[in-house]
UniProtKB/TrEMBL annotation:
Organism: Streptomyces griseoaurantiacus
Classification of source organism: Bacteria, Bacillati, Actinomycetota, Actinomycetes, Kitasatosporales
Pfam families reported in the protein's UniProt record: Pyr_redox_3 (PF13738)
InterPro entries referenced in this protein's UniProt entry, alphabetically: FAD-bind_Monooxygenase_sf, FAD/NAD-bd_sf
UniProt-recorded name of the protein: NAD(P)/FAD-dependent oxidoreductase
Top-rank lineage group of the source organism: Bacteria
Length: 506
């Protein structure tokens, strides 16, 4: 990029959120924007996570943009290669390639209060932007626990999101750390290859059957010839999950029937009563993410697999679990998730008062309608605080936030006149929104189910999940309410300095 380049909008990240924002900006007639991506290709988490068995646990026809239907999905639940290829096609079909700045990592974003714009430092130079759309996503920076002795382990170590495809696991003794969504996909893939697989489990997950199948040629042909059939399929998938969320948010005590199905799924494959007891959660189903697999339990029942407690210590090549058992390993695979409630990008964003977003969020993440943080004018996040979902497609939430972004851009254009304008979320508005969200969270299974999940931050507050339906969120983000923002503008040219105005209704 040219040094000191200025753009109207800078989008950070090129996963579903970033590419969706780019498409929406073009649809709004905005072409003066860039997409800053630290990787060498688009795809976000679907580029980074290429571990064996990586796939989505949301049906393909729902886990895609409504404006970019794909009649060619090969399976009802598609794998990582097909999802990444879909995102590449989105970048091509919607003309996003010219806007991409690949291999460009954002190192610092600082608000310039005088000129009402963001100064953005990257690994390839500096630029400025009127508006920043942060679409780095919550599943982008791997989290590895601090385990005594890990630094001295002489074998191979890698995280599921940084899979080393050059390392051959065949015949190796492997320690798999974690039992989350990635781990239950990895375990069945590597179990037949390794000599010994030790699964270190802190908390067992609830695992339901995965209703996955190939989508036949005739089905795909029908979706191509009659796009309305694919739209109807998507609508049915959406409707079923909208109904399901009612149980999670309003009637968590009525989930017994779902638990019985999960127990039956386990009992079919796990005949050893001791192992079954070890794999049975002691919390309400749904409190942690419900996982889908038909192969996880059978893999754990194989003779070369052992399930032990959480990893407590590493002594050379010896692994000590919390239950006191010891095992030897040649390699460690961490399936321990990501920095979700402490997003690293927040350390790199400096707002109007000279504080980083991380400092502002020290007591817990909070943003107006999941998008705007107080003190950070013209900085929006896609998949921000309390926009996550536990039972349906995040693309639905992303598209709702894109509606909000579109209106945000329209409002800025109307307010700017001959100068610049910025919108800064009022602290009272952020607080009111957050209090409403947390109040609704109180009765949900995520707060009452008796578990400690990655949905909760260090203070025990759920700053990750949206406690309602996607319909409700879409309604809440349909347009920007200027009463929730303070309007900043320059009186004329940008160099004349900014004025903070508190207008009637602003």
């Amino acid at each position: 990029m040219a040094e000191h380049e200025h753009v109207r909008v800078a989008v950070v990240g090129s996963g579903f959120g970033g590419l969706g924002a780019a498409v929406r900006l073009r649809r709004e007639g905005i072409t003066d924007f860039v997409v800053l991506e630290r990787g060498d290709r688009v795809g976000g988490t679907w580029r980074d996570n290429s571990y064996p068995g990586c796939a989505c646990d949301v049906p393909s026809h729902l886990y895609s943009f409504s404006f970019a239907p794909n009649p060619e999905w090969p399976r009802t639940f598609s794998g990582q290669p097909h999802i990444r290829a879909y995102l590449e096609r989105v970048a091509d079909v919607f003309g996003i390639r010219p806007h991409l700045r690949l291999n460009t990592e954002v190192t610092l974003m600082r608000w310039d209060a005088e000129n009402l714009r963001w100064e953005i430092g990257t690994s390839r130079g500096t630029l400025t932007a009127d508006l920043v759309v942060s679409a780095t996503g919550p599943l982008s920076d791997p989290k590895i626990p601090d385990i005594p002795g890990l630094a001295d382990f002489p074998g191979k170590v890698f995280h599921s999101a940084r899979w080393d495809h050059d390392y051959d696991l065949r015949g190796k003794r492997v320690a798999m750390i974690g039992t989350g969504a990635s781990a239950i996909q990895i375990v069945p893939e590597i179990q037949p290859q390794v000599s010994r697989l030790t699964l270190f489990q802190r908390t067992p997950p609830w695992v339901m059957p995965r209703a996955d199948r190939a989508i036949g040629t005739l089905e795909r042909k029908l979706h191509r010839a009659l796009p309305v059939t694919a739209k109807a399929r998507r609508g049915l998938l959406w409707g079923i999950r909208e109904l399901q969320v009612q149980a999670f948010t309003k009637f968590p005590g009525e989930l017994d029937v779902v638990e019985r199905l999960a127990r039956r799924n386990m009992a079919r494959a796990i005949k050893d009563p001791a192992l079954r007891a070890r794999l049975t959660p002691d919390y309400r189903i749904g409190c942690k993410r419900i996982l889908l697999s038909n192969t996880y339990y059978p893999a754990l029942a194989r003779p070369n697999t052992e399930v032990v407690g959480a990893l407590a210590e590493v002594r050379g090549s010896t692994f000590v679990s919390a239950d006191g058992s010891e095992t030897e390993a040649d390699a460690i695979v961490f399936g321990t998730g990501f920095h979700v409630t402490d997003m690293p990008i927040a350390e790199r964003v400096v707002g109007a008062e000279g504080r980083t977003l991380a400092e502002s969020w020290k007591g817990g993440m909070a943003a107006l309608r999941g998008a705007s943080a107080a003190g950070f004018p013209n900085w929006m996040t896609i998949i921000g605080p309390n926009t996550g979902l536990a039972n349906t497609s995040m693309i639905l939430m992303i598209e709702a936030q894109l509606n909000y972004l579109a209106d945000y851009v329209r409002q800025l254009g109307l307010l700017a006149g001959s100068g610049r304008a910025a919108l800064d979320a009022r602290p009272a508005a952020v607080d009111a929104w957050n209090e409403r969200v947390q109040r609704r969270m109180e009765r949900t299974v995520w707060n009452t189910g008796g578990c400690s999940s990655w949905y909760l931050d260090a203070g025990g507050r759920n700053t990750t999940i949206w406690p309602g339906t996607t319909t409700e969120f879409r309604r809440a983000t349909r347009q920007v309410d200027l009463a929730e923002y303070e309007v900043l503008r320059t009186p004329g040219r940008a160099h004349e300095g900014a004025q903070r105005t508190v207008e009637a209704g602003a």
